[in-house]
Design a protein that fits this description.
The structure is a homotrimer. By secondary structure, chain A is mainly α. Chain A is 74% helix and 0% strand. In chain A, helix 10 packs antiparallel against helix 11. Chain A is globular. Chains in contact: A-B, A-C, B-C.
Chain lengths: 326, 326, 326
């Protein structure tokens, strides 16, 4: 009976591993990606103002992973364009989502049931992308785990990782945010997947590829569906993250001391001379204020946005002052 | 008689196809490019403040196409530097245009008659660049029209397409404008050329290469001269563009609804959950307001600048608010 | 006696040339680089907010040269990750410098004596990097001095040259400053080194490699130590620079005329039509105001920051106006 169940799972995993992505899953990926672009603030304006920029952005959303991993491996970032079928399909979907009369397509796909299905299918494609990236890097750099993880991550979450430059195409520039400073859920899940598949490929994870594919796919799809149904943005790793963060990265100097410190330490790279004199004082101060830091243990994300805003404010302050002095 | 004329044209096209670009036409291209840089706002300051940055910018203006297509094809973007003669020539012209005593060179080349000739010759080089890019891509990616168009376009209009990063070298950063959002005339004409030469190379356009070269060159030169003499910035495709735009891209949602919509739809990529609930309302609203949109059919460009400024304003507004709340 | 001394120097240079960089000098390079990152304004906040972004920035500080030269030569920019030992070492140092309990590591390494030693050792690694880059380029592009200089420079000063994008990782964006607009001392010294080694490799400089290595290393180390001890930021080339600048680049138009001129000449690339009419007037004006320019011979750097600030101010002014008009 238990054996039977095991066999079923094995069959299922084999069936999944042999599942062709083209056309249905690819289409789902394109639809969800283009919808994600359309739901970016200001994207609709751009679609009216410059269809070409809008199309280019959509392609970056759909093929960002291939472009990014191409750049990282010094392969032509233009290669995705050679996949004519995919580009035509994505372009068709781009047109329908943005310019369909009566906005029929978007208003359909944006409804929960259909959206659930499409998002689920998109998550399935993620597994294939990550695995593809990891195996590709494995073929080029045999024993380098880091490269395999990086390429797998880039393939799977490229659209997010290059978002700064994708936004630039649309005339938007938000330097204060990027996926490394504040990872979104898909970026996180893709990173975890890249690590898992890398360990599996290098034999550190005693699992067969198709089994891991089944596990990872089920996890991502179920989790994505849960998040869409409950409407919650809480990632399932929040707990682990905060624990890891508290143990490893809650270093010496508290938030309070930071801005002041940052302004003291205006020293450019390599020529750090007068630094040396001020540093003992600084360390004293920081160790002194650690209690305060402990008292206000702001969670990373909020802390980040706060501190960064604070920094921006201070910087703006400076520039204005320097202008007034002129 | 008519046959004679045909023969003459054929001879002429052959003569043109065998015309060597080096040195005269290359020099004209460098002069016009460096002058275009010098006429950028703030360029003269940079030339005084940091000659190196100014030189690097000039090289990007002169060899931007080669650099961009190099990156797109994963070939060394530094390759143009191996063409020592070209670089030395361009550097000499850069120096004369920016630092010549009494500003003799610039004040000569900037006069209409000479400038007309130089611009005309630069347009001729465009044909060679576009054709070069298309054939290069044709050799690498046999059947991929899109890649051929992209590389031809990049080779011919690279300086414009990478302008954002060229400006960054000079300490200028204008994310709200790029050649994809608002194409300049040279970028447009180059794109058209890339499409034509791609179709010709792949045999969809029943023309011989040297005939198309003659046609395209004559068109670009004549048109450029017309624009410089009349001082009009109106591209000859304005009519076609607006027709295409009205038929294809005047989608459902009018400008009026956009900003409000953009602010409602603050959902980041991939995790688009509560979106689903609000989208039906949104589509109603948009279809409802279409009339208003019809009433004010702002032309793409103005519409763009307006809407983007509006967006910036609102965003600035937000940040300030969020700062005040802190 | 003199011969003896010569022999000693020769031995010394041979010994230096055979000095292994790994592990001690590499470690010193990583420590100084990560400390330089930590002393960037706002870096400590980022280290608390997003350890991943902080780690990535540190890697760019440590391996920026390899990444940049990789991009320039169309080799995988991810290659440095394949050097597992180096990456692990750098990551360990990154962790200790940023998150060590009681901030022990930083407070030690920041003290003058140790810092002097570390910085000196880092300067030694610079020689190896520059030479490595030059020889690598020499192997690929036999006779192209410019490429050899560029790659040697990129290898040796990559961290500084890509600082704009390294800052972007940390959510900081300062387009108005880059190493080309205002070169820092290490960038300058690296450029000089790249030129020297290029001339030596191509035989224009009648010196043996190990002799030049000794000379360059001694010069950089001594000079760096001097600058750290005296706390002066004055580069030893300030004199030569100003002379070269005054002779070559103090062109026709003075600072005073620049901003006004820049605002007149608002013409985008390639379509420079009505320019022609205004240019004679401009040249007259500029030649007229040269006296004023002579009267206030602002040094490049201040001049730059001033003029650029002025430009920013004016630009901000414009945008605000254009907003008011809306």
């Amino acid at each position: 009976m238990d054996v039977l169940w095991m066999l079923r799972v094995d069959e299922l995993s084999h069936a999944l591993a042999n599942l062709p992505m083209f056309p249905y899953f690819d289409v789902a990926h394109y639809v969800v990606s283009v919808m994600a672009l359309r739901e970016q603030p200001g994207a609709l304006e751009v679609s009216r103002v410059s269809p070409l920029a809008c199309w280019f952005s959509s392609m970056l959303f759909c093929f960002g992973g291939a472009v990014l991993s191409g750049i990282m491996l010094a392969e032509p970032p233009i290669a995705p364009l050679t996949n004519s079928t995919g580009v035509l399909l994505a372009s068709l979907i781009w047109y329908l989502v943005f310019y369909c009369p009566m906005d029929l397509v978007y208003s359909c796909t944006a409804r929960l049931p259909l959206r659930l299905v499409l998002s689920g299918m998109k998550e399935v494609t993620r597994t294939w992308k990550v695995l593809g990236g990891v195996t590709q890097a494995h073929g080029k750099y045999k024993d380098s785990l880091l490269v395999m993880i990086a390429i797998g991550w880039a393939k799977g979450a490229g659209g997010g990782l290059i978002s700064n430059f994708e936004q630039l195409v649309r005339g938007v520039w938000k330097p204060e945010t990027n996926e490394l400073l504040k990872m979104s859920y898909p970026t996180k899940i893709t990173l975890i997947g890249a690590v898992l598949f890398t360990l599996q490929q290098t034999g550190y994870l005693p699992l067969q590829t198709h089994h891991l594919m089944l596990l990872y796919t089920v996890f991502t799809v179920v989790n994505k569906t849960r998040m869409m149904l409950t409407g919650s943005n809480i990632s399932p790793f929040a707990g682990i993250e905060s624990v890891v963060y508290k143990t490893l990265f809650s270093g010496p100097s508290p938030y309070a001391a930071l801005t002041s410190e940052a302004h003291k330490a205006r020293i450019d790279t390599d020529t750090a001379t007068n630094m040396t004199s001020s540093s003992p004082a600084k360390t004293k101060e920081s160790s002194g204020k650690r209690a305060a830091g402990k008292r206000t243990p702001a969670p990373p994300v909020n802390g980040k946005s706060e501190s960064l805003k604070a920094k921006e404010k201070s910087e703006n302050g400076e520039t204005t002052n320097s202008k007034k002095t002129k």
